[in-house]
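Q: Hi! Curious about what MORN repeat-containing protein looks like structurally. Here's the sequence.
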Amino acid sequence: ERFFSSGKRQALETYLNNLRHGVWETYHENGTVAIRQEYANNHLSGRYLEQNSAGQIVTEGEYNTQGERQGAWRSFYDDGTPNSEIHFEAGVHNGKALSYFPSGQLAQQATYKNNHLDGESLRYHENGNLYEKERYQDGQLDGLQVTYNADQVVIAESNFKLGKLAGEQKRYFDDGKLKQLTNYHTTILADNGQYPLHGIQEQYDSEGRLVEKGNFKQGVKDGLFTRYRQGEMDSEENWLEGERHGKQTRYYATDKLRSIDHYEHGKQTGRSESYFADGTLKERGTRLNSVWIGKYESFYETGLPREVIHYASTVDENSYRAKFHGHYARWFGNGDPSETGEYIDGKKSGEWLAYNQGLVTRKQTYLDGKLNGEYAEYYNGRRRVTGLYQDNMKTGVWTGYRYQESDPTFGTIAEGNILRTSEYANNKLHGKREYFDFKQIRYRSESYVEGVQTGPYAEYYVTNGQLKRQGEMIKNVQTGLWQGWFEDGMQSFSSELLTGQQHGKHREYYANGQLKQHAQFEKGKLNGLLTQYYQTGKQEYQEQWLKGQKEGEASYFHTNGKLAEKGSYLRERKEGLWLNYWPNGEKRSEGSYISNRQSGDWVYYDQFGKLIKTEHH
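A: Let's find out. The predicted structure is below.
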């Protein structure tokens, strides 16, 4: 005996000579027998019983003296309603087998033979109506299987051959209308061990209209396949041994033709056409092994041409398309041309033209697929750019034009008015680049070496072409002596530069040729004596500079040449004694600065030398 922790019996077991013998029982904790079974010489024998805690039988049956199930075995739901009934002979399923819904309604009845379903098997809906009727042989479906909905309408008819779908199969809608017809082979198995699709295959919609129809031959499509959309033809395809072969046609929902293609052994070969929904031709051409060859045309929905391409008649091995070969043209939607040209063996050749609003916008010349020869761009029929290419690289003189018809400051501009000329080599600026004004007078000249501004640079006055400024550039940086001139040819400045910064002597002049300023620079900063002159030639001021700051003595003069002020700077600030004078030479003030601020005693005089004021800071 074994007991629960509560002290109640949990199990009762009996033995004879250490072998199970007699009645064995286990209990629920409430004392109700859970399982009762009998043993004889260690073998189950006699009646077997299982109960729930309420004492309701769950399972019951008999064992023979060999410990094998024998006769009817029954199971029940917790409320006592039958669940199943199975018959055994010496432990083997043999005979009738029944199962029930919890409501007590029969769910299935079948027959077993040597542990396998054999013969007719019936399954039911819970309302008692037949759900499925089928036959088994040695545990495998064999023969006709019929399936019904809850209203006893047939919804499926399937044929089996030793567990495999074989022959005709039908599926129906709940109202009994045919939904799908499928046919399998009945004698030859496929590699997967099943019978392959073989024969007519059909599919219908709920209104009985054909949706799809085709034929299979030993698992692959073979023959005509048709598809329908709400009763109207959607497509027709011809197949041969699993490959598209022959004419293929598709339609719009309006029943209008959508496309026509031809196939040979799975690849598009022959004429190919497609259409817009209103029946207007969309594209047409010829294919070889699914690749366009020969003349190809496409169109807009208006019927106007969109593109014409000529392909080679053969396709290179491992190529996804044939080479362009022959005339090429493209149009805008309004019918205006967009681009025209020629291909030879897949490469552009000869003159190619691009258009906008019916006018040429670009002319290109190709040789063996590369730009070679004249090139031009246009705007509203007026030249914009002209030049030459050699092997896809700009070369020679390129000219840019003013393509506008007028300018608010100049007026009407003649076609071909040059804006700029540039010399190229190997697709880089190399040589002169010159700029011109509306009257075609040169106003700037630059020099380049392999795309970098290097060499002489000059600017000119547009009024008379007179030189305005000139110097040297090295790698985009000003260097050496730079000079400038007034419009009448008189020099306006001269300056020495190093790596783009003023470095060395600097001179500026008035228009009358009189020196205006001379100075010394170092690395872009004033360094040394700076002298400025009036236009009369008299000195205006003189300062000492150090690394960009005023440093040392400075003198300033009136226009009559007499001293006006003098003193010293320390790091850009006035420092020490400073004197100021009237234009007549009389002293005007005297005093000292500390860091740019007046300091100490300051005295002031009138222009006659009389003391008029003193200050202390």
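A: A fun detail: The chain has a mean pLDDT of 96.
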